[in-house]
Write a structure and sequence with these properties.
This is Serine/threonine-protein kinase PrkC. The chain is an alpha+beta fold. Helices cover about 50% and strands about 10% of the residues. The chain has four domains: about 5-75, no CATH class; about 90-175, Phosphorylase Kinase, domain 1 (2-Layer Sandwich); about 180-400, Transferase(Phosphotransferase), domain 1; about 410-555, no CATH class. The chain has 19 helices and twelve strands. The protein starts with 17 loop residues before the first helix and ends in a 5-residue tail after the last strand.
Length: about 550
């Protein structure tokens, strides 16, 4: 704001006495910087405007303004406030606090600089109103002991813990990306189910490692999954695009929706509620609910259903999987009573799935079983099934009948290309065979008197059926699915229907060629019918495989606004 412009319009004229000038100046100063107020005071002194006409009054007013301006300029600037309502500390031990990067119901997380070794770290401090809470302090120490024993690229490691006065703090690796909940909230389109399955497979692999160390997380949810930019090699996107993606994904602003889920790898954090599998829960009061209800397994809310086991984390992964697919978790209850009522039956029966492949639905159903024994035996088995689904392979959760095996074979993306290749080969062979037959017809040993009529008929069949199907199959190799559909229709009409008419003697095409040997006509056209029908079926399988894989890879609009 210009001190000589808008603020200047607020300057009292010579009818204002000193007390009124003081009050007006206080109002003026509240919306201006110290430098602007000093400038106004100097303007008063230079212009001679004051509370009276004599020089003494002018100097009094200018002195008052300068004194107030100096007082206002020396006022300390506003200090940054953390999420818990307290001032952000500047130093914790040897760590210099840079800024706040996250908060939860218990702790506030800061980005800090480890001056001793020159690296950025994340420091977790308890909320100031909970510093004296002995249970919470014990929980942080427990988190340090639990997460500190885990070393996996999919888990945020705890470097150390310490005390600063009454404050316990944890020092962990700093992950530049957002958490999954923040990323999901910024999206207008869901990622494809292939991206989701591949991402959650890596998360399940990290959980499997923790389970191998005897650690049950008990609070797996999107906000506890941080996103680290995955290594994107030049072979995938090129060096310039890789650098651009890295700069975008690690920017300090809200994560843009232009960064796909496939560009990140999950890193599990917040082991504050974790327990070792052989560690009993000391407080077993029915009022104690440990975890986040929307992501909790039935046995976490209803202890009579069984103890907390590794399958408890598998249930939470299933909930997270549903949220990534549908944009919201399967539970919609806002109270514990509503959530508990959800578990009266199998949770999976109450879920309304979006249009997702049946194999992925099978995986989710197995994760969300009300009975822990019916879930995956291990997080590793879940990770393997998700990876198999992403690769288009058979999942272990589905009982493999011959029908299922046939369906899996038909869905393989390779069927699309194979169908086109086989059609090209078949049509090329038929064209060569017909042309060879025409050369025999035009030879001196042809028994009939008119070799031109059957020759022209044969050439017409090549021009109207075989050659177009050949060209369309070549286009199909270039992913022109419409060409495969047209080729299939041509084969059904010209390669199946017409030979049926010829075999049944409803049409006399090419009769002069066969003359006294009609069984040659029937056998040859039966062969043409068989080849054409086989290729039409193969093309339909290729079209189906393309459609099924396209649905798996396509991004879809978010079903529900977050």
């Amino acid at each position: 704001m210009d001190a000589h412009g808008d603020l200047g319009a607020e300057i009292p004229d010579d009818r204002v006495d000193l007390s009124e000038l003081d009050d007006a100046f206080q109002l003026l100063a509240s919306g201006s910087s110290g430098e602007q107020v000093e400038s106004i005071a100097e303007l008063f002194a230079a212009s001679g405007t004051g509370g009276g006409d004599d020089e003494e009054s002018i100097h009094k007013n200018a002195a008052l303004l300068l004194r107030l301006a100096k007082h206002y300029s020396d006022r300390p600037p506003e200090v940054p406030i953390a999420a818990d309502g307290h001032v952000i500390p500047k130093q914790i031990g040897r760590f210099s606090i840079l800024r706040e990067i996250g908060s939860g119901g218990f702790g506030v997380i800061y980005l800090a600089r480890d001056e001793a070794i020159g690296r950025d770290v994340a420091i977790k401090l308890p909320r100031r109103d909970l510093i004296q809470d002995a249970v919470r302090r014990k929980q942080m120490i427990h988190e340090a002991r639990t997460a500190g024993s885990l070393e996996h690229p999919g888990i945020i490691p705890i470097y150390e813990s310490g005390c600063e006065g009454e404050t316990v703090y944890l020092v962990s690796s700093y992950c530049e990306g957002p958490d999954l909940a923040t990323w999901l909230g910024s999206q207008t389109e869901r990622p494809s189910v292939i991206e989701i399955a591949s991402f959650v497979s890596r998360l399940a692999d990290a959980v499997a490692y923790a389970h191998g160390k005897g650690v049950i997380h008990r609070d797996i949810k999107p906000s506890n999954v941080l996103l680290a930019l995955d290594v994107v090699g030049p072979d995938v996107v090129g060096p310039s695009e890789s650098r651009s993606l890295e700069a975008t994904a690690t920017s300090k602003s809200e994560p843009p929706q232009s960064v796909p889920l496939s560009a990140y790898r999950p890193r599990l954090t917040d082991f504050g509620l974790a327990k070792f599998s052989d560690e009993p829960i000391v407080d077993t009061r029915s009022s104690l609910i440990i975890g986040t209800p929307l992501y909790m397994a039935p046995e976490q809310l209803l202890p009579d259903l069984g103890p907390i086991t590794f399958q408890t984390d598998i249930y939470s992964i299933g909930v997270l999987l549903v949220e990534l697919i549908d944009g919201k978790p399967p539970l919609s209850g806002k109270t514990y009573v509503e959530i508990l009522s959800f578990f009266q039956d199998e949770p999976r029966k109450s879920i309304v799935y979006s249009d997702i492949p049946s194999d992925l639905r099978t995986i989710i159903d197995k994760c969300l079983s009300r009975t822990p024994e019916n879930r995956y035996a291990s997080a590793d088995a879940l990770s393997v099934d998700l990876a198999a689904f992403a690769a288009g392979e058979t999942i272990s959760a589905r009982k493999m009948t011959w029908i299922t095996r046939a369906r899996v074979w038909c869905r393989d993306a390779r069927r699309t290309r194979e169908a086109c290749v086989s059609t090209v080969a078949a049509m090329s062979a038929l064209i060569v065979w017909v042309l060879y037959s025409i050369s025999l017809v035009m030879g001196p040993w042809f028994p009939g008197d008119d070799p031109w009529t059957p020759a022209i008929q044969a050439l017409a069949i090549i021009a109207c059926i075989n050659l177009p199907v050949l060209v369309l199959a070549v286009l199909g190799l270039r992913r022109k699915i419409w060409a495969m559909k047209v080729a299939m229709l041509l084969l059904l009409t010209g390669g199946v229907f017409v030979p049926l008419l010829i075999i049944g003697d409803f049409v006399g095409l090419l009769d002069p060629i066969y003359g006294p040997f009609p069984y040659f006509k029937k056998s040859f056209h039966a062969l043409v019918l068989l080849i054409s029908l086989s290729e039409a079926i193969y093309l339909s399988i290729g079209i189906y495989a393309n459609r099924w894989n396209w649905k798996r890879h396509r991004p879809a609009k978010m079903a529900t606004a977050r």
